[in-house]
Design brief:
heterodimer, A: alpha/beta, D-Maltodextrin-Binding Protein, domain 2, five-stranded mixed beta sheet, globular, B: mainly alpha
Chain lengths: 340, 492
């Protein structure tokens, strides 16, 4: 706080224009406080813009994270695939709370309510291609919470995560992604009667919900700090799963939900009184996440994905997602992949 | 005083009856003074009291004191004083004994009739809430439509919780912390029920939203309702403990007064013997006997009552508390075991463990601790057997749970589900939980009977003590007065 006070004191000396510059710097300083802390407080007035450039520099290093996957291959002699083949089944981290992506239909004819959905179809496809489709027990699912996706991969508890997981630069530092298999973007979900019209100034005075460890929460926090969100909009206590946001919304504890459009559509499908508001305000791609260094597996999965785009993807979309996302599958199919 | 007319008859008139002489302490020496003083009080009264020249009137108390002092110089006077003191002591002894024992037996009544049943009611609220939550999660695991058994169990427990709350509300003092807790629970119960209904409705539609609602309802139960129910239960147990503490201490004031009265009676008889060489004074002997009976009755009766009540606490209440705690721990463990499968890893603790499995492990440790404690406290075969059986069930439960967890973490959900709620041929943990619950219920019934018997015995040992000691004390006082009066009559 003393740094800010000193900053204000120096602002008086700079005059009107100077004050504006310092005000901008102050916003940046507040947003990037941890970064700034390492520096001396003496150059605080000038340090702000500099620090901002530093963060965006990392972002510049990594543009288009969806194009950072290794090229596809059919080779199955790598250690990772070898181990999976030896074990006899693939362990896949999935969600069980995402309607039509990965969920358990309690009324399903299948015993015990097996997991099903678009992500589950893809996981089955991968397991069938690597281990052969003859055996139904070639795959084991593990339901994992949003904020445990990366730790589960790093600790080797799962071979891969197929769980509406957005390919992002920060995540690329911890895991390797396949080529994108789905295109979506962050979107706002609110009751039909709500004044909220999208990710804009209509969010003023609204309480917004997002899941812990989600891109949505990251985006919200950054935008709140940068002042891109109306200052009166509050981010509610994060919940373990995006679906918990719909519970809070129905109970009137929050006013709007921010999540991937694909998942927001799943939520809207479970409650006809809510709807997606405005256009998606980001473009994101879902990818299959695997351990860093398991390039043999990633290449193999990329090969499987190439084929899946040709046959299987569209059928699965029509089975699961047409009712919630609309019949036009082409806007959800990512462009032909580029590899690194 | 009523005796003034007699004084007019003259000093020679012998007091015919010794009986009513008790309050007549100042009578003897006042005879000479009385007539004049009567005149002096009567004559100036109509005109002007304390007219000029007359000495100021002394207070009645000062006059009485003088009279008493004068009386103490003559033997009949002394006898009158002794008689009065004896009567006073014995009556005081009886009164204090009656009062203290009435207090204690009222507290013992409370133990038997109000605070213990209330403590049971509070334990029932606590248990039925935990049970309802467990039933809700079991029903959920079964699929879109819950089984009739799990629905019945859930509804029954909700009803029992509501009944228990109504009972606790009627019995708690307005404004007390128990009353507040009951009111809060009364508000939370419909909220919880609403959440479970939403979970069911969504589940029936096949929406995963149902599972999210169930987890939310569970949080409400675990974080807001069960801690309050536990507080209520602890409060009621404290109240029960307080009633015990009021019922069991020895009535020392009464015992002290009794000893003093007996001592004074013995002293009076010794004095009598020394002065007259007569060994027995019937009145005083009767008074001594009555006092001794009261004192003995008081000490023996209370000792008996106390041991009965302490028994009912040590073998009843303590066992009941531990068994109730064990039962609640097993219910919570079961609820968490179910939720592990409902949530399937949707929530993780700080250490990266499944939130519900960690909670299950915690509750199982608690259950094991309480079962060990219950086995230690159990004092007979009938109490031990069900606790031992429950311990055995718990061990099998833990074993089967490990198998279920291994299957689940290995990705074999169906096997895990069968191992938890499956049919008996799948050897599910549900069987073990039911067996633990049944055995604990058996043990609770047994201990409740033990409590009731011991407490009733204790209560019975006290009954009759308050009126009995009062009546006997009156008899003793009469005896003392008669005995002294007999001696006094020899002076007439």
């Amino acid at each position: 706080m003393s740094a800010i006070r000193r900053l204000r004191a120096s602002a008086k000396g700079w005059g009107g224009v100077g004050a504006m510059v310092v005000a901008c710097a102050l916003t940046a300083v507040l947003a990037l406080l941890p970064l700034r802390d390492a520096r001396g407080s003496g150059d605080a007035g000038l340090g702000g813009p500099g620090a901002a450039r530093v963060t965006y520099a990392t972002a510049e290093d990594c543009t288009e994270p969806e194009k950072k996957s290794p090229a596809p291959s059919t080779d199955e002699s790598g250690v990772t695939i070898e181990k999976i083949k030896e074990r006899g089944y693939l362990i896949v981290g999935v969600d069980q709370n995402s309607y039509r992506w990965g969920y358990r239909d309690p009324n399903s004819a299948k015993a015990g309510g097996e997991l099903e959905g678009f992500d589950i179809d893809l996981a089955h496809e991968i397991a069938d291609r690597i281990l052969g489709s003859g055996r139904p027990d070639n795959i084991r699912f593990r339901a994992i919470p949003t904020n445990q996706r990366i730790p589960a991969i790093q600790k080797g508890e799962v071979d891969m995560v197929v769980r509406t997981m957005t390919i992002s630069c920060t995540r690329l530092e911890e895991v390797t992604f396949s080529a994108p298999y789905f295109k979506t973007g962050q979107q706002v979900l609110a009751p039909r009667s709500s004044p909220v019209g999208g990710y804009d100034e209509t969010l003023a005075d609204q309480r917004i919900c997002a899941a812990e460890g989600s891109i949505a929460l990251e985006t919200l926090r950054n935008d709140k700090a940068d002042g891109d969100l109306p200052p009166s909009a509050t981010i509610a206590e994060p919940v373990p799963n995006q679906l918990d946001c719909l519970v809070r919304l129905q109970l009137g504890e929050v006013d709007a939900v921010v999540t991937d459009g694909a998942l927001a559509a799943s939520q809207a499908a479970q409650d006809p009184t809510v709807e997606l508001k405005g256009r998606p305000f980001t473009t994101e791609y879902y990818g299959v996440a695997m351990r860093k260094g398991a390039d043999d597996l990633v290449r193999r999965v990329n090969r499987i994905l190439e084929d899946y785009r040709e046959s299987g993807w569209q059928e699965s979309y029509e089975d699961w997602l047409s009712p919630t996302l609309g019949d036009d599958w082409s806007k959800s199919l990512p462009p032909p992949p580029d590899y690194r | 005083m009523t005796y003034t007319p007699k004084a007019g008859v003259g000093s020679a008139a012998p007091p015919t009856q010794a009986g009513p002489s008790v309050p007549a302490v100042p009578a003897a020496p006042s005879r000479a003074v009385r007539p004049s003083s009567t005149v002096s009080t009567v004559s100036p009264a109509p005109s002007s009291p304390g007219g000029p020249g007359e000495p100021p009137r002394r207070t009645a108390f000062a006059e009485g004191l003088d009279q008493l002092r004068a009386a103490a110089t003559t033997e009949p006077g002394r006898l009158r004083i002794i008689g009065a003191a004896l009567a006073l002591l014995v009556v005081a002894f009886g009164a204090v004994a009656a009062w203290q024992m009435a207090d204690r037996s009222a507290a013992a009544d409370d133990v038997l009739g109000s605070s213990q049943p209330l403590s049971v009611a509070a334990a029932d609220v606590y248990r039925s809430l935990a049970d309802a939550n467990t039933a809700a999660s079991s029903g959920f695991l079964a699929g879109g439509q819950e089984t009739p058994q799990s629905r019945d169990r859930y509804e029954r427990n909700i009803k029992e919780a509501a009944d228990g709350l109504a009972e606790a509300a009627a019995a708690s003092e307005p404004g007390s912390s128990s009353a507040r807790t009951v009111a809060e629970l009364g508000k939370l119960l419909p909220e919880y029920k609403g959440l479970v209904e939403r979970a069911r409705a969504n589940n029936r539609l096949g929406y995963p939203l149902g599972g999210a609602y169930l987890r939310y309802a569970n949080d409400k139960m675990q974080d807001e309702m069960l801690p309050r129910a536990e507080r209520l239960y602890k409060n009621e147990n404290q109240r029960l403990r307080d009633d015990y503490d009021a019922a069991t201490p020895y009535p020392w004031a009464a015992i002290g007064l009794g000893l003093l009265a007996l001592g004074t009676l013995v002293w009076a008889q010794r004095r009598n013997y020394r002065r007259t060489n007569r060994v027995l004074n019937h009145g005083l002997v009767a008074a001594t006997a009555a006092c001794s009976v009261v004192l003995l009755w008081l000490v023996l009766g209370h000792t008996l009552a106390r041991s009965g009540l302490n028994d009912s606490y040590d073998h009843g209440v303590r066992s009941l508390n531990v068994l109730n705690d064990a039962r609640i721990a097993s219910l919570k463990a079961r609820g968490n075991e179910n939720l592990t499968l409902v949530s399937r890893g949707a929530e993780i603790t700080g250490d990266g463990e499944d939130k519900f499995d960690a909670a299950y492990q915690d509750e199982m440790r608690t259950l094991s601790r309480y079962l060990t404690a219950a086995a230690d406290i159990a004092d007979d075969k009938a109490g031990e057997a069900p606790v031992e059986a429950a311990t055995g069930n718990m061990e099998v439960w833990q074993e089967r749970h490990r198998e279920a967890r291994d299957a689940d973490t290995g990705g074999d959900y169906q096997t895990a589900l069968d191992k938890v709620i499956g049919t008996p041929d799948k050897k599910p943990t549900g069987e073990c939980f039911d067996a633990v619950d049944d055995n604990l219920k058996k043990a609770l019934t047994h201990e409740q009977n033990e409590f009731r018997e011991a407490a009733r015995d204790g209560r019975r040992a006290m009954s009759g003590l308050p009126p009995g000691s009062a009546a006997l004390a009156v008899l003793a006082a009469a005896g003392a007065v008669l005995g002294i009066g007999r001696r006094l009559s020899e002076y007439r």
